[in-house]
């Protein structure tokens, strides 16, 4: 496949065609659609340029450095909103994202690239945005659900404590509800990707010269990696965050 002037011109047509239709029917949402498409385009171009130059250089140190920066960016994005409880989750989430890098992302990279190309940028760098974009969204929603549970369901926690339940048993309900909510929220876009986007991505990979078997395996690994990494990262984060949300007497910190 080649990138030509016609390709760029056709991309512009595809960008403005739905906006023109919305404008023509009198919709007031075209500005929001344009801004959303513009944000996605800028993000895709930025990630593409980073991966392009990293693959062009293909230096082991740069690849490792980008692998360490990705968990930090995902943690910052998940705790970005100006909500007072989010600052307590930055350190646990950063630790959780680093654990995900070691236990899930690197083995997935090894499964796709093999031992000979383990430090190559071809497979490692695309896995980072695929994984940590999903992790950032899911953990942000899970942290909100958990923190709101601590604030709104504190009476339930103290009721269980007063009736002889241990700290782990009392907090398990809030932990379970946060993970369940994040899992369901993560499954909705994941199902949409599998049913709507995945066939297109598979066809595009085949058009780029990748074999059908390799493209299918890579797609399955990426989808499952994004889903599993989100849930594992959230679980580790919420487990570690109890140090920051409870005092030594197992009471809520104000």
Provide structural commentary.
It is a single chain. With 254 residues, the chain is mainly α. It contains nine helices and no strands. It has helices spanning 5-24, 30-57, 60-78, 90-113, 121-152, 154-162, 167-207, 212-240, 242-245. The longest helix has 41 residues, at 167-207.
List the helices and strands and how they pair.
Elements: H1 5-24, H2 30-57, H3 60-78, H4 90-113, H5 121-152, H6 154-162, H7 167-207, H8 212-240, H9 242-245
Short key terms for the protein model shown above:
254 residues; mainly alpha; 2 domains
The outline comes out as: globular
The poorly predicted ranges are none
Spell out the helices and strands N to C.
HHHHHHHHH
Distance between the termini: 58 Å
Strand fraction? under 5%
Brief rundown of the structure:
This protein is mostly helical and 254 residues long.
